[in-house]
């Protein structure tokens, strides 16, 4: 079964850091580009960051540029999001998503992990 | 940055047709993808590249894209189609970013 499972969410104080992980299974991970998409409570979807199949190309939303870093370890079938200088407005569910074709549609999504930034 | 617009809500009776629009400047030149999200669930791709359906998505879901408007059409609407629907494009004009529309809540009367 094709599956993405996120982990690493939690409660963190403003200015703090957190590292999210996404474990992929059921497909050849290094055949696909990957992304992180977030959704604040009761709000819409917001693209956060993307990475191509080998990590050689990355992109970030302006709202996180310079604070978040996307990476991947193809040997471990894992995607990561390092989040620094967290703000209250970063509070959201963070989804890991697989590109059908990079760039393009996201055909597989994880169930998400919640990040709460609060003092 | 590229901006997508969607109506906040669409209401439709069972068995009728729901049309959800996604507006953007010359969006017809881009590939549009559509997602369905039910409460407490992750989004699910229902249409990609304007009008293609992933395997397992009913033929009742179809898409079109021309000019400044893309449209997701749900034919013979069922109660289970009640959800939020989001459109998405890739904006190649500004540092390769993905853009989502604000979402449309479809209510089945």
Q: Level of helix content of chain B?
A: under 10%
Largest beta-sheet characterization of chain B: 6 strands, mixed
Q: Report the count of strand segments of chain A.
A: 11
**First and last CA, distance of chain A:** 39 Å
Structural class of chain B: mainly beta
Low-pLDDT stretches of chain A are: none
- Based on Cα principal axes, name the global outline of chain B: globular
Concise synopsis of the structure shown:
The complex is a heterodimer of chains A (119) and B (109). Chain A is an all-beta fold and 119 residues long.
Can you describe what's shown?
The complex is a heterodimer of chains A (119) and B (109). By secondary structure, chain A is mainly β. Chain A has no helices and eleven strands. With 109 residues, chain B is an all-beta fold. Chain B is built from no helices and nine strands. In chain B, a hairpin with a 5-residue loop joins β7 and β8. Chain B is globular, with a radius of gyration of 13 Å. Chain B starts with 8 loop residues before the first strand and ends with a strand. At the A-B interface, β5 and β10 of A face β3, β7 and β8 of B.
């Amino acid at each position: 079964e094709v599956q993405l499972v996120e982990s690493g969410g939690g409660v963190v104080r403003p200015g703090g850091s957190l590292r999210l992980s996404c474990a992929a299974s059921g497909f050849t991970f290094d055949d696909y580009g990957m992304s992180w998409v977030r959704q604040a409570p009761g709000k819409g979807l917001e693209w956060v960051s993307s990475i191509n199949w080998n990590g050689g190309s990355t992109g970030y939303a302006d709202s996180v540029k310079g604070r978040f870093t996307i990476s991947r370890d193809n040997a471990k079938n894992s995607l990561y999001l390092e989040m620094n200088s967290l703000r209250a407005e970063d509070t959201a569910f963070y989804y890991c998503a697989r590109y059908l074709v990079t760039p393009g549609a996201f055909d597989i999504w994880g169930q998400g992990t919640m990040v709460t930034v609060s003092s | 940055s590229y901006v997508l617009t969607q109506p906040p809500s669409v209401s439709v009776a069972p068995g009728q047709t729901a049309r959800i629009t996604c507006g953007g400047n010359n969006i017809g030149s881009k590939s549009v993808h559509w997602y369905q999200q039910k409460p407490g669930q992750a989004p699910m791709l229902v249409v990609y590249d304007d009008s293609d359906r992933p395997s397992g998505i009913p033929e009742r879901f179809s898409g079109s894209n021309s000019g400044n408007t893309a449209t997701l059409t749900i034919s013979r609407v069922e109660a289970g189609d009640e959800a939020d629907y989001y459109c998405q494009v890739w904006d190649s004009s500004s540092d390769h970013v993905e853009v989502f529309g604000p979402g449309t809540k479809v209510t089945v009367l």
